[in-house]
Amino acid sequence: DHEGFARSARSLHNLIKAILEPWAEDGERIHVAGDDAVIGSAAATSLALAIHECATNAVKYGALSAAEGRVEIVCRTAGDTFELVWRARRSIAGDLGGTIDTDWAPEGLTLRITAPAERLET
Fold this sequence. Notes:
Structural class: alpha+beta
Distance between the termini: 59 Å
Strand content: 25-35%
Low-confidence stretches: 1-8
Helix content: 25-40%
Order of helices and strands: HHEHEEHEE
Largest sheet: 3 strands, mixed
Number of helices: 4
Oligomer: single chain
């Protein structure tokens, strides 16, 4: 029915896949899993901007900048809370043997990269 089609077109998974389609290539590099949800236009705009920013960075500097790179996006709903986890395979962990921690505080993003100091010389 029309209402069911309209809801499915506004799903979170459909939004993510549409944004990431230019980089999906063979369908193996980007994987979307977990809970799907109907999203409104304001939420879609905010999420689209965030996902596009992550994708742009992954293409320029991270997992999607190399043929072997992979991105996994997992969506979870637990009670009244929604969570989207973006996992990129390559970059800091692969190249530097380090980790990246992020904190999305209301005033902005804090990104903490740690790696063995000797890896900076390679």
